[in-house]
Design a protein that fits this description.
It is built from 21 helices and six strands. It is mainly α. α5 packs across α6.
């Protein structure tokens, strides 16, 4: 059946640009072990540019008798303005192959087969990406592609649940009773605010109850449980895919080989003393007290900024309460007349939610820009030892902040809004002493407002992200190279063309991962209220893969290649979000269930606790059973790794025996 997938495949020379050899870490002392046809091309371009950068990052430029021994590395020369830029060169223009016969024009091949939007249905040439950009960028695109493929299944099930709500529209007894003149029209509700609001009829919320049913029905309860299983399958299957790439890209022994090479030049400069280890000299900072002080200061700063977010959220809640009262007061005082709503299809609750969500989104974007610089500054102060440690520290700080920043308003609507209202004659007010009465949910529940919040924040973030990632670099490049674009390549040299492109910082991939992990949180933590979230994410990611490819290939200088055998700290963050998503979705599903199916002789809170306890334990048991059943490393890959090591050891042993015999014969 392979012919079915032919339209999705790329040519073999693009998918597999190099033969698959047995490999071993390079050792110049054993150069005869390696198959070398041409020393100039033995190392691929990504390895060569990594070696050059390693040397430049540590090269001293002070005089031997100088007291300032910190004058090291190209980064310091860039910071003080001695040099304007330092970057590896692309091997050709992206829209045409190089005229140089020695150039492989891999940039052109990547653009032709990968970076064009109309190739969105094609597989990604991961081996060519790895060869040109290095393993770290290759792993990112492998993960993003796999995540997008898995989203397809979640999107299909979510769409089915939404269609179920749409087609069972007329069978919804709850909405029928609310909209009925005999039932909802005869139920007079208490005023929504204290002074200016009048009584109102329950059937005035008819439209919102129908809208709520599309997202809040029995199907979404099933979908919440399905997503608990889906997220486990996604993470476990990714581990297997990652293990396969680890083997294919010769990264199995990565940590042992790269530990020394991963030391940051900034760390080496700051370390003025050594501690003798039994095996080797290990660099340490001179003062442990200094390190502890810096770490405490850094985390105090993180807590301060998270407190700032919480203060902003409280401000938005106060806005919601004030505007909610204003919208509610638009209704007429007479309990028998039709109610004049803010619009023909929305309630005061929904109108308040839409405006508050827009304000919240603006606050989120502003705080993100401000905190980003603070997070980098405090991570630099900690002076992490390796590049991996630096990224992990920054990842934890940024994600904690972003988690609170993006999700706190959603948690408020999902779990707190409408839960502390009080009763007629004894309402609860914000802070107890203010005149702002805690807001209530629609009679149909708060989940339609949570859906509104998710749509605005999620869609707004995706649009804003694509503008930042694609439109802004394109405009800057267009303006910067406007005078030179018409010149032939003989006058407009390769390095000048690349210099006019945007710089890809060492944290460039960090922001790409962060964007996708925040999206992952949206589609897992609150999916019980918005089953179309995976579909929205799928459509965004199909575009995201090609936008990122186009950006790397056409708009940015070639980044310094880096090795990575996994997605790093993001794996643990995804695992944490997956576990937390079970708690949030089961809680929302049980809240919906207990709200509708409650026995007269049972307290609502006790029903909720019973349902939550049983459902959450069942979902967790299934989740961990599925994770246990699926091995992290495929058996085939384990066997190949063992076989390859055995053959290499056998070959090295035979070679050394041959050398010894040769020397003894000569003697």
């Amino acid at each position: 059946m392979n012919w079915l997938f032919t339209p999705f495949r790329l040519p073999n020379h693009i998918m597999n640009p190099e033969p698959d050899y047995f490999t071993s870490p390079f050792n110049k002392g054993k150069i005869d072990f390696f198959l070398i046809d041409d020393k100039e091309t033995f190392f691929p371009p990504s390895v060569r540019n990594r070696i050059v950068y390693y040397i430049l990052a540590r090269c001293a430029y002070h005089k031997e008798d100088s007291d300032d021994k910190n004058k090291k590395g190209i980064k310091r020369l860039l910071n003080n303005g001695t040099y304007g830029a330092a970057f590896p060169l692309h091997d050709s223009r992206y829209w045409k192959a190089s005229r140089d016969p020695n150039s492989e024009s891999e940039r052109f091949s990547l653009y032709k087969h990968w970076a064009r939007f109309f190739s969105f249905f094609k597989e990604q040439p991961l081996n060519l990406i790895r060869k040109y950009y290095g393993e770290k960028i290759g792993i990112y695109f492998a993960w993003l592609g796999f995540y997008t493929e898995m989203l397809f299944f979640a999107a299909v099930v979510g769409l089915i649940c939404f269609l179920y709500g749409l087609f069972t529209f007329d069978d919804n007894v709850w909405s029928k009773e609310i909209c009925s003149e005999e039932i909802g029209g005869n139920i007079i509700m208490c005023p929504l605010c204290d002074k200016t609001c009048g009584y109102w009829k329950l059937n005035s919320t008819c439209n919102s109850s129908w809208q709520s049913h599309m997202f809040d029905n029995v199907g979404t309860v099933f979908f919440a449980i399905f997503m608990g299983i889906w997220v486990t399958l996604f993470l476990e299957f990714w581990k297997r895919r990652q293990a396969r790439l680890e083997y294919e890209w010769d990264l199995v022994d990565f940590e042992e080989e790269q530990q020394q090479l991963q030391l940051r030049p900034e760390y080496e400069i700051k370390c003025t003393s050594h501690r003798l280890n039994r095996v080797t000299q290990v660099l340490v900072l001179p003062s442990l007290t200094c390190i502890i002080t810096l770490v405490l200061l850094c985390w105090a700063t993180v807590v301060l900024w998270i407190s700032l977010i919480i203060a902003c959220i409280i401000g938005v809640i106060a806005y919601r309460l004030a505007v909610y009262a204003a919208f509610a007061s638009i209704m007429k005082d007479s309990p028998t007349n039709n109610i004049h709503m803010v619009g023909s299809l929305i309630t005061p609750q929904l109108a308040t939610s839409v405006t508050a969500s827009c304000i919240n989104f603006v606050i989120i974007m502003i705080l993100n820009v401000m905190y980003e610089r603070v997070a980098i500054w405090i991570t630099d102060m900690e002076i992490p030892k390796t590049h991996l440690e630096y990224e992990n520290k920054l990842t934890v700080k940024m994600f904690l902040f972003q988690f609170v920043n993006y999700y706190s308003s959603c948690f408020y609507v999902a779990f707190f809004k409408g839960k502390f209202v009080g009763r007629p004659g004894d309402y609860i007010y914000m802070f107890g002493w203010s005149k702002l009465r805690n807001e209530e949910c629609d009679p149909g529940g708060c989940l339609i407002e949570l859906t509104t919040q998710l749509v605005i924040v999620m869609a707004g973030k995706q649009v804003w992200g694509n503008v930042q990632e694609a439109l802004v670099p394109w405009l800057l490049n267009w303006w910067g190279s406007r005078k030179a674009r018409s010149h032939p390549e003989s006058l407009y040299s390769r390095w000048e063309q690349d210099h006019d492109l945007q710089n890809f910082s060492h944290l460039g991939l960090f922001y790409e991962y962060l964007e996708m992990v925040i999206q992952f949180g949206f589609i897992t933590l609150f999916v019980a209220s918005f089953p179309l979230a995976p579909l929205l994410a799928l459509m965004n990611n199909i575009i995201e893969v090609r936008v990122d490819a186009w950006k790397f290939t056409t708009q940015f200088r070639r980044p310094v290649a880096a090795k990575a055998h996994s997605i790093g700290a993001w794996q643990e963050i995804l695992n944490g979000v997956a576990v937390f998503s079970v708690v949030t979705n089961v809680s929302m599903a049980v809240l919906k269930y207990s709200r509708v199916h409650i026995c007269p002789n049972h307290d609502q809170l006790s029903v909720f606790h019973q349902c939550y306890y049983i459902t959450s334990h069942v979902v967790f048991m299934v989740k961990f059973f599925v994770a246990w059943m699926i091995p992290d490393v495929p058996a085939e890959v384990k066997a190949r790794v063992k076989r390859e090591r055995y053959l290499i050891q056998q070959y090295l042993h035979n070679y050394e025996v041959f050398i010894l015999m040769k020397h003894s014969t000569c003697t």
